[in-house]
Design goal:
- The longest helix is centred in the first third of the chain and has 16 residues, at 122-137.
- Helix 3 crosses helix 6 (201-211).
- The protein folds into three domains: 2-254, Spore Coat Polysaccharide Biosynthesis Protein SpsA, Chain A; 265-319, no CATH class; 338-435, Jelly Rolls.
- It contains ten helices and 30 strands.
- With 438 residues, the protein is of the alpha+beta class.
- The protein has a six-stranded antiparallel β-sheet with strand order 20-21-22-29-24-27. A five-stranded mixed β-barrel has the order 8-11-9-10-12. A four-stranded mixed β-sheet has the order 14-16-18-19.
- The radius of gyration is 24 Å and the shape is globular.
């Protein structure tokens, strides 16, 4: 299978565990078969590989998520990077051009597109295989997967099929309805539109060329910022008359809020937390190194991270977004391709960070124009290169770097290298970084 996973999200609805670079799909709250925590993107990627070990997986995402994807999935996964956000049609067009021009996928092959973050089981991916086969061998230009509704939802659009057969022609699409209208749709065999569909690569590329003036992937990438913001539904689906839909009746959950996310958690507590016996239906996720105690709380979620602390009634947690939009602060935690960093203290003229460098990884060779930095090695053994001079560093060593000096650190060992980094300057920003060749 050729699969494009759409990975977007601003990280506001699952604050404080998510932020602009750590969207919900990167939060590790599910357990794998070995009992280790994994994220949504890790879970979905693993499930795809279990069904089709040779699947060609490409993740369409913004550049802010690339480091987290490499951190969690490794360097081998294909990534189509959106230079900026331009909604789903430009993103899918760019990813399709990436498949043809970078990965050399034949225009005659089928491509499946789906979100990166549904909570699903094995039967979902078996259905994706069937969806791919229908797109490859069927007569329809677009083949959708519709989800059998479990209740009359107001938050999903609906697909109206010709009949209630497993595979049917699509008659029309309906926007998010009220409950009464949703009940009427469902009684007639309507399906939730989960944004899951397949097509032959040539079909989508032809559509893209009709709407966008570009020659190939590189040309489209360069022009991306000038493209109109438009969804795939508006640009393609609503204008296409030859569409089929396949029904899917297995487990499918959109874990977009704390309320729905906690429904999928296997345990009530992740991290350092204690609940007394008077608590009912309480879930705690603690990403801090300090304990949380909850007593007599009911129907609540408690989430804590370097970004902040949320204590909310589960139903009310769905309305968090406008409150998060009022908060202004730097990113306090991020996963990078080489490891991760966590902000310990932020002052006007200083920033203190705990840096974890994974085994076999290194930072870019870079410099800063407006700040000095001090590294204190607290764990592991590595090498620093400061203005071309290499030095081995161990716990207790302190490395000073003045503004303008080129520097990097390398972890050649088989354990994590941990550093306390202090940044000193009057204009400390992520933009103050110049990369150099080593």
């Amino acid at each position: 299978m050729n699969i494009i996973l759409l990975s977007g999200g601003s990280g506001q609805r699952l604050w404080p565990l998510s932020n602009d670079v750590r969207s919900k799909q990167f939060i590790k709250i599910f357990k794998d078969k070995d009992g280790e925590y994994e994220s949504m993107v890790q879970r979905v990627y693993r499930q795809i590989r279990e069904i089709d070990s040779d699947a060609n997986v490409t993740i369409a995402t913004s550049k802010t998520q690339v480091s987290a994807i490499h951190n969690q999935l490794g360097e081998d996964v294909g990534i189509s990077i959106e230079p900026c956000r331009r909604d789903t049609f430009p993103a899918i067009a760019l990813a399709s051009a990436y498949l043809k021009d970078v990965q050399n996928v034949s225009p005659d092959e089928a491509v499946v597109v789906c979100p990166v973050d549904p909570y699903v089981e094995k039967d979902y991916f078996m259905a994706l295989e069937k969806l791919s086969e229908l797109a490859q061998n069927g007569d329809a230009n677009l083949t959708l997967m519709g989800i059998d509704p479990t209740y009359p939802s107001e938050k999903y659009g609906y697909i109206i099929p010709e009949d209630k057969a497993e595979v049917s022609k699509v008659v029309s699409f309906k926007e998010k309805p009220d409950v009464a209208t949703a009940k009427d749709y469902i009684s007639k065999g309507a399906l939730w539109n989960g944004g899951i569909f397949a097509y032959k690569l040539s079909y989508l590329l032809n559509k893209a060329h009709e709407l966008i003036d570009f020659s190939d992937y590189n040309d489209l990438f360069e022009k991306y910022e000038t493209l109109e913001k438009i969804s795939f539904d508006y640009a393609v689906v609503e204008k296409e008359s030859n569409i089929s839909v396949i029904r899917f009746g297995g487990l499918w959950k959109d874990l977009g809020t704390w309320n729905t996310l906690t429904e999928a958690m296997e345990e009530n507590v992740i991290g350092d937390a204690l609940l007394n016996d008077k608590c009912e239906d309480v879930h705690v996720i603690n990403d801090l190194n300090i304990p949380i105690i909850a007593m007599g709380i009911k129907n609540a979620v408690i989430a804590a991270s370097p970004e902040g602390i949320l204590v909310s009634d589960k139903e009310q947690s769905s309305y968090i977004k406008p409150f998060v939009e009022k908060i202004e602060q730097p990113i306090m935690f991020a996963e990078k391709s080489w490891g991760s960093y966590r902000v310990l203290d932020a002052e006007k003229d200083s920033l203190t960070i705990k840096v974890t460098l994974n085994p076999g990884h290194s930072m870019n060779y870079h410099s800063h124009e407006r700040r000095d930095e001090v590294w204190s090695i607290v764990r592991g053994v590595g090498r620093t290169i400061i203005d071309g001079e290499e030095k081995t560093v161990r716990p207790g060593d302190v490395v000073n770097m003045k503004a303008g000096s080129k520097h990097t650190v390398i972890n050649d060992s088989d354990e994590e290298l941990q550093i306390i980094e202090v940044q000193l300057g009057r204009d400390i920003t992520v933009e103050d970084k110049v990369k150099h060749e080593l």
